[in-house]
Design goal:
By secondary structure, the protein is mostly helical. The protein contains nine helices and six strands.
Length: about 270
């Protein structure tokens, strides 16, 4: 029997201010991600002041990038009618990859400006990103954002509240729950394996994260009702392939170095 979700996305309103489930889960996701990132940055002995300053820039960039790509990809008519709609993050609608790409670019720029080594920073950010994104998808499940295709599966979800973002009364694939669980497992794998991956070299954890998150989303987007744009693939799948190739290239570099080290054991191998 399908699971029914009859939750108003707005928890309470005070005057013109609405408190939404999406906003609360977004704040919770950011808080947990910051805690994980800060812990890892300290363990790696990164510049504490630079890390503290950079967190806010990265958080802002992720929200802006996520919102911009969402509006351009899914809500362009609304943006044309009301350009200020791009700032209405509390109504839901953030592109996963828009936020991720903006965050990576911001980290790269900030690390260069502050003289912080890039790869250790990205390694510290990888598990933080996975757990933050997992928590964020709980908010999508509650509000009906990022819903899946209609299904007859017994664990389908049916939305009843008129303010939900998903179609009402239709059993849907709970893609938000799938993604939250998969990203939670990715976080666990990264967290438990971070010492071993660190042995490969700086950047191995970040590369593993990129391959993992791209693989998860590539598979799940076959269950999302979105238009194909390239050889039957959807926009997120195309972007994901690019990120997966980038992550695979990072990991392949470590394999190449290991093979070179085995063939020439006396030669010093430089990390990326």
């Amino acid at each position: 029997m399908p699971f029914t979700i009859d939750v108003n996305p707005v928890i309470a309103s005070f005057g013109g201010l609405a408190i939404r489930w999406y906003s609360l889960t977004l704040l919770a996701a950011a808080a947990v991600a910051i805690l994980v990132f800060t812990y890892e940055a300290r363990r790696k002995k990164l510049d504490g002041r630079a890390v503290s300053d950079g967190i806010w820039w990265v958080a802002i960039a992720a929200i802006v990038g996520g919102r911009l790509l969402y509006e351009l990809q899914d809500d362009l008519p609304m943006l044309g009618a009301d350009p200020l709609h791009v700032f209405m993050v509390w109504e839901g609608g953030l592109s996963f990859y828009g936020g991720l790409i903006a965050a990576i670019v911001t980290i790269a720029v900030f690390a260069r400006l502050r003289g912080v080594p890039l790869w250790p920073v990205l390694d510290a950010a990888a598990p933080a990103a996975a757990i933050g994104q997992a928590i964020g998808h709980v908010g999508c499940l509650i509000t009906g954002d990022s819903f899946g295709l209609p299904t007859t599966l017994p664990w389908a979800v049916v939305y009843r509240n008129s303010a939900a973002m998903a179609p009402l009364g239709v059993p849907l694939q709970p893609t938000q729950a799938y993604e939250a669980i998969a990203l939670g497992l990715l976080f666990a794998a990264l967290w438990l394996g971070r010492q071993r991956l660190a042995g490969l070299g700086a950047g191995a954890l970040a590369g593993t994260y990129l391959v993992g998150v791209a693989g998860i989303r590539f598979a799940l987007f076959f269950l999302r009702d979105e238009q194909a744009v390239f050889f039957g693939l959807k926009t997120a799948q195309v972007i994901g392939l690019g990120l997966a190739l980038g992550g695979a290239a990072i990991l392949a570099n470590f394999v190449r170095q290991r093979l070179a080290a085995s063939a020439f054991p006396t030669k010093e191998i430089a990390l990326p």
